[in-house]
Every structure is written in structure tokens, then in C-alpha cells.
Design a protein that fits this description.
CATH architecture of the largest domain: 3 Solenoid
Strand order of the largest sheet: 9-12-15-18-21-24-27-30-33-35-36
Radius of gyration: 33 Å
CATH class of the largest domain: Mainly Beta
Length: 409
């Protein structure tokens, strides 16, 4: 017989009145448990002949406790509540009386992690069949309550998802929405009208949703919307937008380093890295998979194209086209971000085409329209090359960085 202390502790934690004494066998789809009945046990009835016998309902309850041990062998099932949904077949063959040792043999016929679980139960006393039954159990997900530190403040109108954790002295303002699994460390400030997605991690001292640093802002309702799986490190500040119902938007899977500032009405895409102390003015647009170096300043209304990289300490006053690398104070276009392109799976033929498009705009002494006219005569097939051409043809409030230093690459 195996040691059963661990399993009996589980029963004691789950049930007010555990009904099993011993565990003989336990596997993911089979369990054998025992119970010795004494005269003091509750749940006996008196038969017409004056003898005591255990009620059928308590036999089924004991079977369900054994099923609980089977459920514990399935990690996904452990997080769910299970209920007896159907007694498909049940036959009581002989009574159980005080002093009997009951043996429950329970086999799970359906043990996957979705749908109901079918249990074949055989109940024996000294080899004598007491009960044979087929039971069907269904599972329901039990939402986990948010974990809120006693010193944290959460406004009554805030909506918190499952498994949200709010650290010490953090403050969650009115009409804030926080998705499942998001963690706020200590001393985080989430101000009103902020929406944060699931599985984000926000570190100490971050302030999200604070009032726009804009003379035009007059207190109107505006928002910050943050997607899923973002990491926002210490002392990051993200301002809400200027303008009624306007938004500052952060996408998914971004890494925002310590002390980054994101101004009002900015739009950040997915898989973006903003390194320490980068500062974004209002209305900046950063597309997907951009890397911004430390201490970079980006002028308001500037656009940063997909896959671009900005070197540390750069002063960016105009748009940075997709897939390019810029650096300097003031920033200048240097070359294609070849390393970044290879990391996202761009192969040599498309790299060659991208280099041709890049040289048309930045190496041939042509203005933008002349370069567009030249490229229009060619057959440009690559999606990334077409995106670069499209970006260069779009209207821009700040213009596009043009100058490049160093030899053509």
C-alpha cells in the first residue's frame, strides 16, 4: 500500500467530511481507495429487519471523492470544478454495514483535458460486489479572483480580469480595465480611462494614463489602450490622448524599458523595443518590430516605419522609413537594417531587391518623386520592398529623413 498522507491532505482541504481512509493505487486513469465503516459514522439507515446499513447516497458521495483524486492527476482539470452530471447506470447489489471495509475501484474511461469524464466504479466489501455504476462528470472553469495587496487602492468602477495581481501601494483609477493575468508591481499608478490587455507585466513606479502634457487638453474623456503580453518597466510614463475619445495605443508583445516616456496620441505597433529613457512626443507613430535605442528623442507627429532601428542618443526630427537604420544628432539615414531583416526571415533575393529600392531613394541623388517614377518602371515583387515604396509615397507632416552618411551598402 502506498503512502496516502499527501492524498488524504488533499481530501481534507477539499471536503468538510472526507469519506476515504486509504489510497492503494493511483494513476492518471485508475484509483483504488478504501473506507472502513464504524458504528459512529453518520449516514446509516435502519432496514425493516432492524439492521443498520450505509445509504446509497453516501456511497456515491464517497465515489465522487475518489474521482477528485483522479482529477488531481490532470493539471488542467485541477483548475476546474467537477460535478456529477449523469448516473448512466447504477446497481446496488448488497448493503454496507458497520465494520465493513469498502474498496472502491474507479476507472476513468475518458481522461482528456476537454469534455466530460466517464467513470466506471466498482464497490466491493471483502470481494463481495456492493455497487456497480457508470457516472459522468462535467467540468466548469472557476474564475480566479484578483490578488490585491491590502495597501493598494482600486476604484469601484475598475474591472479586473482573472488572476490579476495588484502590488503594494499601487493605485487603479476609475473606469480602468485590466485583462486576465496582468501583474502590477508595487507603486504603479493606472489612471482613469486606461485599458490594459492580458498577461502584461508593469513594474514599480510606472504611471499609465496620466493627463496629456498638451496645452490643448481641457479634461475631456480620452484613453490609453494597451494590448496583450507587454512588459513595461520601472518609471515608464504613458499619457492619455488629447481630444474627446481619442486614444494613445500600445499594441502587443512590446518591451518598454525603464523611464521611457510615450506622449499623448502616440500609436505603437507590435514587437517594438523602446530602450531606456527614449522619449516620444505627441502623435508619434511607431510601426511593428521597431527598435529605438536609449535616450532617443522623437519629435511629435513623426512616423517610424516597420523594422526600422534608431541608434542611441539620436535626435529624430523626421520620418524614418521601414527597414532602415538611422543614427545621429540630428539623425541621418545610414543603411538598411540588414540584421533586423534577417531576423524576421527575409531571404537574400528580397534583400537584394530592397537594397535596389533603398539606393533609388537615398543613393542616386534623386528627389522622392523622381525615385518613385524610376521604381514605377520596374517590377518590384517583394512585400517589404513595396511597403518601403508605399511609405515614401505617403503624405508626411514631418518629411522623411534623407541624408545618408558613408558608402553605399
Amino acid at each position: 500500500m502506498i503512502s496516502t498522507t499527501y492524498f488524504l491532505d488533499k481530501l481534507n482541504a477539499r471536503y468538510n467530511q472526507p469519506m476515504l481512509d486509504r489510497v492503494e493505487i493511483i494513476t492518471p486513469n485508475f484509483v483504488v481507495v478504501q473506507k472502513t465503516m464504524s458504528v459512529s459514522e453518520s449516514g446509516y439507515r435502519i432496514a425493516h429487519n432492524g439492521e443498520w446499513y450505509l445509504s446509497e447516497a453516501l456511497l456515491l458521495a464517497a465515489i465522487s471523492q475518489g474521482v477528485g483524486l483522479l482529477v488531481d492527476q490532470h493539471p488542467i482539470r485541477v483548475e476546474q470544478d467537477f460535478h456529477l452530471n449523469q448516473i448512466k447506470h447504477c446497481e446496488f447489489l448488497s448493503p454496507v454495514i458497520p465494520g465493513d471495509t469498502i474498496r472502491f475501484e474507479l476507472t476513468a474511461e475518458s481522461v482528456d483535458d476537454s469534455g466530460p469524464m466517464t467513470i466506471e466504479a466498482l464497490v466491493l466489501v471483502e470481494g463481495r460486489r456492493v455497487c456497480e455504476t457508470t457516472l459522468i462528470y462535467t467540468f466548469t472553469h472557476t474564475p480566479s479572483r484578483p490578488q490585491i495587496h491590502p495597501t493598494a487602492s482600486v476604484h469601484p468602477t475598475a474591472v479586473l480580469g482573472e488572476n490579476v495581481k495588484i502590488g503594494a501601494y499601487s493605485n487603479v483609477g476609475e473606469h480602468v480595465v485590466i485583462g486576465d493575468g496582468t501583474i502590477l508591481e508595487a507603486n504603479v499608478m493606472i489612471e482613469k480611462w486606461t485599458e490594459i490587455g492580458s498577461n502584461c507585466h508593469i513594474y514599480s513606479g510606472a504611471v499609465i494614463g496620466s493627463q496629456a502634457q498638451d496645452m490643448k487638453y481641457k479634461g475631456e474623456r480620452s484613453l490609453v489602450k494597451i494590448g496583450d503580453r507587454n512588459t513595461i518597466r520601472e518609471y515608464v510614463t504613458i499619457n492619455r490622448a488629447t481630444g474627446p475619445d481619442c486614444e494613445t495605443v500600445i499594441g502587443n508583445d512590446n518591451l518598454i524599458f525603464t523611464s521611457v516616456h510615450i506622449g499623448h496620441n502616440c500609436t505603437i505597433g507590435d514587437h517594438v523595443i523602446l530602450t531606456n529613457m527614449a522619449t516620444l512626443g505627441g502623435h508619434v507613430v511607431i510601426e511593428n518590430r521597431v527598435v529605438v535605442g536609449g535616450c532617443v528623442g522623437i519629435h511629435q507627429f513623426t512616423r517610424i516605419g516597420t523594422g526600422a532601428m534608431i541608434g542611441g542618443y539620436s535626435k529624430v526630427h523626421s520620418d524614418v522609413p521601414p527597414f532602415l537604420l538611422c543614427d545621429g544628432n540630428p539623425a541621418e539615414i545610414r543603411t538598411l537594417n540588414v540584421v533586423g531583416l534577417r531576423r524576421i526571415g527575409v531571404k537574400s533575393p528580397e534583400l537584394t531587391e530592397l537594397k535596389y529600392v533603398f539606393k533609388a531613394f537615398f543613393k542616386n541623388q534623386l528627389n522622392t518623386q523622381q525615385a518613385l517614377d524610376l521604381l514605377a518602371k520596374d517590377t518590384i515583387q517583394g512585400a517589404n520592398s513595396q511597403r518601403l515604396i508605399q511609405f515614401m509615397s505617403e503624405a508626411s507632416k514631418r518629411g522623411v529623413l534623407k541624408k545618408t552618411s558613408g558608402p553605399a551598402k
